[in-house]
Input
Amino acid sequence: MKKRKAFITGINGQDGSYLAEYLLEKDYEVYGIVRRNSIAENQESRIDHLVGNGVETAYGDLLDVSSLERMVGTIKPDEIYNVGAQSHVRISFDIPQFTVQTNALGVLNMLEAYKYHCPKARFYQASSSECFGRSVEEDGYQRETTKMEPTSPYGCAKVFGYNIVRHYRFAHKLFAVNGILFNHESPRRGANFVTNKVVKGAVRIKSGLQDKLELGNMDAYRDWGHSKDYVRAMNMIINHTEPDDFVVATGRTHSVREMCNYVFSKLDINYKDVVTQNPKFLRAEELKYLKGDSSKIRKVLGWKPKYTFETLMDEMIEHWQGVYE
Ligand code: NAP
Ligand code: F7E
Output
């Protein structure tokens, strides 16, 4: 039987790399774009083990329409996963124009290439719980019907991406769908996101490699899951019988402070002795509270996470212990 072809933007990111592994296990041919990086080793560092072993990459950029057209036009994928983005919320305050171009116009660029070159394919958009911003339902959750009130340039751009995907679905009868994913982490998470920053910092403090850890707001709450569970959800969403949008979340929330307490306690350190606040890590507007209601994807597609908050954090601790101890 002919293999299914998947095309992934952001293939060398956290999710892109796990997604590529997951699709290879399911016998897909996998293609992706990578951006030119001045340190060539960084270009494909998370997917080095996959390139040439079922994964093919080419240089491209969500802002370079010709590269998208060329890739989509020649590969003619069956499934397109648009997971490429400037994904750091605080940094989106520093580089708002680049963030909006990539995370909003980049989606439109991909949709146009898809509509023109392979409209029979399916299209997955990496939407985000950051779209909900200030909105929390009375029962303390965010779900598919919750109003979107973003609190960052990143969130505003992702709301555009979410809406333009729905518009292309209805206007052009395309199988274009959104996964509205809550925070998800792993040992492959960039080390300037809070979970990996805390775990890496805690292990380095335990090993005597640093004394203190500087953080921003410790009283924000997040619903943290594992990237591996979430890329499995992406594949389920794009293979549903009809195009639809789904929230993906664990339904449990913890503050940054609680997460620090869990991680440092595991290493027999009192986080209060070593964690300090540096205003440079605060945001002009903070999203204070996220807890996702994923009952729709659990009921309709039978998805549920395999990892808990604790097993996720334990895996990340073990990873950094392997590096520094
Ligand atoms: P990540 O590790 O930061 O990966 C982002 C990827 O996008 C990288 O491969 C990056 O390439 C690429 N990229 C950035 N700008 C690009 C551009 N202009 N053109 C093409 N590619 C570009 O992020 P992630 O955690 O895997 O997240 C994947 C997607 O899910 C993103 O769209 C993110 O916004 C969204 N999301 C993430 C979460 C989460 O908690 N992880 C939650 C909800 C939604 P470089 O390495 O060259 O920069
Ligand atoms: O921050 C607080 C910070 O940067 C989490 C992205 O994947 O999820 C992610 O966005 C919380 C925030 O993730 C530091 O203020 C405290 O309240 O790990 P983060 P994020 O902003 O929630 C969403 C769903 C996405 O879509 C995004 O792509 O932690 N915090 N001190 C800190 N955060 C960072 N980064 N660094 C600190 O020192």
The chain has twelve helices and 13 strands. The pocket of NAP (ligand 1) is lined by residues 9-10, 12-16, 35, 37, 61-63, 83-87, 102, 106, 126, 128, 181, 183-184, 190 (CB under 6 Å).
